[in-house]
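Apologies for my clumsy wording, but are you able to produce some protein sequence, whichever is easiest, and the tokens describing how it folds?
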Amino acid sequence: MSKFKNVVIFGASQGIGKALVQEYAGAGCTLVLLSRNCESIAELCAGLCAENKPAFSLKCDITDAKSVIAGVNFALDKLETIDLVIINSGVGGPNWMESFSSEQFRQTFEVNTFGIAHVLEVVVPLMKKRGYGTIAGVTSLADVRGYGGSSSYSASKAAASILLEAARVELKKDNIRVITVRPGFVKTEMTDKNEFKMPLLMQPDKAARIIRRGIESGRSIVQFPFPIVMATRFIKFLPNWIFDWAMNIARPKK
């Protein structure tokens, strides 16, 4: 069983988000599922309710501040209180400089970074008023450097990780836990677009189990798998000339 009674999950329709829905439903939580894909979350919600697992769903666009407000208000109406908010919405895909698009860059930030900001803007005052709460934002182990072909994704995840870290530091005094979730490669529709080899590729259900256990353990950062975590720590401090050489071998532009 989970120590959280009421859980809200943004980006609940597929991949890690969908697996987290199943994980927390199985742990006895009451859920609110939010996503732009209303058909998917409605179907998922109906399946849970058929198993006597309480769940509610609403279409929500995390890039739209008003839509996020509506989603949180919907959750409060259904749950009365929110114990845990998981911000999982994310986009990615190849993004090479020879065809670089500032519009694609902006759209990536709208979801991966501003989406988290929109949720924090709404949820933090509510949790402050209650005197406690937990917020978990999903970023990536790709946040440490600018990987070739992934400029928009890496930059947006780096910004998201820094945002969550600042929130964690500030909100600790208010009894609000902010957790940064940094997964490695997880098999989803998003990673299926990657044009490079993905070591230690993990299934979403396994990732969801690790995330839930990490959140419930009280850790401030949940990051996995361990070999990739250690590799990124090493990569972070590589001299530029070594990093550049390695990237040209690991991710050559076709």
The chain has one domain: 6-250. The chain has nine helices and seven strands. The CA atoms of residues 164 and 180 lie 6 Å apart. The mean pLDDT is 93.
